[in-house]
UniProtKB/TrEMBL annotation, chains A, B:
Name by which UniProt lists this protein: FAD-binding protein
GO MF entries: FAD binding; oxidoreductase activity
Gene3D superfamilies named in the record: 3.30.465.10, 3.30.70.2740, Vanillyl-alcohol Oxidase, Chain A, domain 4
Family membership noted in the UniProt record: Belongs to the FAD-binding oxidoreductase/transferase type 4 family.
């Protein structure tokens, strides 16, 4: 790694003052993300204004120094790791909620606001912002935007991209652009704001977002459906999604996930579940019972073993706690984990899960599947011992086959985690050459010198 | 207009056979759209396969001849008028529904399928595709995609852009690209498919679309709320949109629109209405009464004159018929009409309508407002005598002021009609120079030689 040019260092120090850090301990703090990969940046910037971001990008562009936007680093793909060095721009100081307009169902925020803090501020207005990744309490809105974060509620309320009205951003040329309008409809020019969502900091740095809000439902109720096998559960998912009452969550666990939720997570679950669906509806007190009835009718069918209405909040919470504990509890099976979040059309879930279990046998490694079935978005967790070279190699070979299987079923590499470093090499399998070339051309239009988050999302 | 190069003519004749037309009567048929503007193309192509579209674009690119995609020409902005000559590509022969997958809530179609034909095919599956422009019976899905068409249902179900999963398209370089995946969630690379929606044929020609479907509600019910004045009605709109039951339609009429609906459209409406809201909810028989109650509570408030539940379908249909007849009935006021579809945040509707009425007085011209209030998307109809030069000039000056007013209220030029030729000159007021430059760079990435629908959307 080459050190920053001295002139750039002093220029940015005078631009950012206390928000410019070059000592190694600070740089180490911003070297990694939740992917457990790491690379030391040359400096860390903590801007407080959009003008500072513009100045920083222009200065870095002139010196051809990489600029890596960062929220709170909760992403799992390495998208925030500065693999080519350069300046990490952490938005932790641009964390103001600028406006909440309940009548317009709109909130205007800086990118560093935590998702959880925003939800708390919206609560008194009877509104919420739908994206609810597991990290919601400590991930930033800017990070959610960069990754197009989802979560269980996406089945009813959409992912991040579906819940944004307008963005203000700084491109790779240091130009401040205004994309979209704070209206729920628009047909004025190209839709640049949805293009920026999910672009992982490779096209522009978002400095302000107008978010689309949804009125909070008054109440919710959960069902727990246990099926003889995966295929029966998957057919229930298709039935649930083909009728008019869209569940507010529709989560799937395979038999291994159920076992872990019971043995490690402490959930009260039977020993013989072939698969489990957690089905939730939300609404008001009058309509909810009818919606739950409709969901119960759709959940019922061939292979259903039991269907319970978790009527009280404590039972519901306990089941969700076990679901949330699944990810960490996987480490009890093996210390190494590859967690991918492939997505397929809902009707293809049985083939995906069956195929993954066949790969588990072929490669002699545990693979546990659970996730957001209503979107066909499954977390495929491949477990192995990282110190065992043969196991590591098998794990990575098996994951490549999981991707190939997903693509053969009309699905794609990622439903909500993104590409980052982790899946970049698989992009040419998922996206054909002319389309990848088009993405590269779009990248060049926003960032002609390639300074924004180099080495991410698009393959070399 | 220069005639087509002879070599191009013969190349495309052999590529398209009977689907290549150069006689003047055929060219005249494709010279105009619903904007009433017209310009003669040099030729008309009626492709039946994507391979023909690829071949055509490549040949036209080599000869630097414009290519103008066309659905059924129902748009009102001139977006399909070949102002620079060239080849109009009408997708009327690529009109197959390729697949309907109810469990995936997905339909795969060619662009020439009529919206109405698609809805009829979906009905037996209990599904529908949400975009419902007034032209739905005779406009094509490809045209809906090109314009990001909306309609009254968009308030609950979103506009076209919100209801697309994947697109296959031919860029200005004649490359076939595949954008998006037929899954309801995705975080794999840049979101090119939403960028193509609403781009009015200036970035690529869509040759296949995977559409996101929604289960059909079992029933619907409508309310008619009459208010003392526009401000009371607009405040009711904000209340209606801030509570959890989202109406399936929320339409607004100002006093002049109510009068026209009564006197010309034959609707049973009072003489003293200051403003009217048509509020509709859909759902199943059990939940609908509760939803209607919630909407009635929200509609009630300061300035409400009457609130009627159009319980029977005949009453409901009669009111909608009067609403749909509004646009043609405007011609009874004056033969010339400028119909714009500006959009503002919902809370700004009172200022917009008050401001428009002030402009009506200032310019001494009738202006009638109605439209999709739940999205803040109002159709502002400016009426004048086109043969009267002074009136024409005043009408155009007033419309420029309507746009300026809209922008000052945080809104934008178009909610669902698009830009085309009609609003192109106003784009620099709506979109700042760096953002317009970014849009031009995106255009250049897709269409480096500028052959796709030149003279549209972006200003010179």
């Amino acid at each position: 790694m080459t050190p920053l040019p001295t002139t750039l260092d002093s220029e940015l120090r005078s631009l950012l003052g206390d928000g410019w850090r070059t000592d190694e301990s600070e740089r180490l703090t911003y070297a990694f993300d939740n992917s457990r990969r790491q690379a030391l940046p040359d400096a860390v910037a903590l801007p407080t204004t959009r003008e500072q971001v513009v100045g920083l990008v222009r200065a870095c562009r002139a010196a051809r120094v990489p600029v890596i936007a960062r929220g709170r680093g909760t992403n799992t793909t390495g998208a925030a790791v500065p693999v080519a060095g350069g300046v990490v721009v952490s938005f932790e100081r641009m964390n103001r909620i600028l406006d909440i307009r309940p009548g317009d169902r709109c909130a205007v925020v800086e990118p560093g606001v935590l998702n959880g803090d925003l939800q708390a501020a919206l609560k008194p207005h009877g509104l919420f912002w739908p994206p609810d990744p597991t990290s919601a309490g400590y991930s930033s809105v800017g990070g959610n935007l960069a990754c197009n974060a989802g979560g269980p509620r996406a089945v009813k309320y959409g992912a991040t991209r579906d819940n944004v009205l307008a963005l203000t951003a700084v491109t790779g040329t240091g130009d401040l652009i205004h994309c979209g309008t704070a209206t729920t409809k628009g047909a004025t020019g190209y839709d640049l704001q949805r293009l920026l969502v999910g672009s992982e900091g490779t096209l522009a740095l978002i400095v302000e977002a107008s978010l689309r809000l949804t009125p909070s439902p008054q109440s919710r109720r959960a069902l727990r459906a246990i099926y003889r096998d995966v295929s029966s559960a998957a057919q229930a998912v298709a039935r649930l999604m083909a009728q008019p009452v869209t569940p507010s969550m529709l989560e799937f666990m395979d038999a291994d996930a159920v076992r872990l939720a019971r043995d490690v997570g402490g959930a009260d679950l039977p020993r013989d579940a072939g698969a489990l669906l957690m089905i939730e509806a939300d609404g008001d007190a009058q309509t909810l019972p009818h919606d739950i009835e409709a969901l119960m009718r759709a959940a019922d069918g061939e292979g259903l073993v039991s269907l319970d209405d978790a009527a009280d909040e404590a039972t519901r919470e306990k089941l969700w706690a076990a679901r949330k504990a699944l990810s960490p509890s996987l480490r009890t099976l093996a210390p190494g984990k590859i967690n991918e979040d492939v997505v397929v059309p809902v009707s293809r879930i049985p083939q995906l899960v069956d195929g993954v279990h066949a790969l588990s046998r072929e490669f002699d490694l545990p693979i546990v599947c659970f996730g957001h079935a209503g979107n066909g978005n499954l977390h495929v967790n491949l477990l192995y011992h990282p110190d065992d070279d043969a196991q590591s190699a098998r794990a990575h070979a098996a994951m490549a086959r999981v991707f190939a299987l997903t693509l053969s079923l009309g699905g794609t590499l990622s439903g909500e985690h993104g590409i980052g470093l982790a899946k970049r090499e698989f992009m040419p399998q998922a996206i054909d050459a002319p389309t990848l070339a088009m993405m590269r051309a779009v990248k060049a239009a926003f960032d002609p010198d390639g300074i924004l988050n180099p080495g991410k999302l698009l393959p070399d």
